[in-house]
Design a protein that fits this description.
Helices cover 28% and strands 22% of the residues. It is an alpha/beta fold and 261 residues long. The strands form three sheets. Strands 3-2-6-1-7 form a five-stranded parallel beta sheet, sandwiched between helices. Strands 8-9-12-10-11 form a five-stranded mixed beta sheet, sandwiched between helices. The protein has a two-stranded antiparallel ribbon with strand order 4-5. Helix 3 (68-80) crosses helix 4. The relative contact order is 0.15.
Length: 261
């Protein structure tokens, strides 16, 4: 190959291939190399062109097999070798996906970058569970926050502002810190019986759901056997899971499922 290639920053969405955009599928089909995260579902990886080279760069909590710095370098090296590189990320590359960091690194080296937005996990979970992120009379807004900080630094969020009963709080990457998150929200006056819906592997055949409440979610998560990425929906809208008749974890008692009183 001659000349400089380019990099596609592709949002793979929450896991269901049917939720990928036409642009994302077109970009993926054009790729010579696909650099993909751990959170990209096997169903989506199955659509990678057979002739394309696949490079996994997945990062798990506490175990970064490939550092972000090395990923940046790798993308640049592959593009400078003349490849069309698909950087395939779960969800949307610009929502907790570090896509902007990678794009800035590439732009500094004169490498063209194009984006394909993806459905973020919160939207996917809402669609697959039927639990809305906003609902008249329950939540007039929604906020996305990360439950994990770089290099395992302590969470230092604006808990007072996040503890808003009129807003749905969606926590990404929060399994390890859900106890701290719950305690901080309780300390700012959020009710103990506030419903919390945990969704693992949203939109995929492996999707699992746990409906709890703010004062129990940390304990119940320790006993929950779900694998894969977990999203937390905290707020009154999560209580609609009961009305929607969701197929929740069978270990929950009726009182726990209700999430009230």
């Amino acid at each position: 190959m001659t000349g400089t290639g380019k990099v596609y920053l592709i949002g793979a969405g929450p896991g269901d291939p049917e939720l990928m955009t036409l642009r994302a599928m077109r970009m993926l089909a054009e790729a010579d190399v696909v650099v993909h995260d751990r959170l990209v579902s096997p169903e989506i990886l199955a659509s990678v062109p057979k002739g394309a080279r696949r490079i996994p760069v997945g990062k798990a909590p506490g175990c970064h097999s490939v550092t972000q710095e090395r990923i940046n370098e790798m993308l640049a090296e592959l593009a400078l070798d003349g490849n069309t590189v698909a950087r395939l990320k779960g969800g949307d590359p610009l929502i907790f996906g570090r896509g902007s960091e990678e794009a800035a690194y590439l732009a500094e080296r004169g490498i063209a970058v194009e984006y394909a937005p993806g459905i973020t996990a919160a939207q996917g979970a809402a669609a697959s569970t039927g639990v809305p992120l906003t609902h008249r009379g329950l939540a007039s807004g929604v906020r996305y926050v990360t439950g994990h900080r770089q290099k395992d630094r302590p969470l230092e969020l604006d808990w007072k502002r996040l503890a808003d009963p009129e807003t749905t709080l969606v926590v990404y990457m929060g399994v390890a810190n859900i106890g701290q998150i719950a305690l901080a929200l309780l300390a700012e006056g959020m009710p103990a019986d506030l419903p919390v819906l945990a969704v693992a592997n949203a939109t995929t055949p492996r999707e699992a759901r746990l409906l709890s409440r703010l004062d129990r979610i940390a304990r119940e998560m320790r006993d929950w056997c779900a694998d894969g990425p977990v999203l937390f929906v905290i707020g009154r809208v999560a209580g609609l899971a009961v009305a929607r008749g969701l197929d929740l974890d069978e270990t929950l008692t009726e009182a726990r499922v209700a999430g009230h009183g």
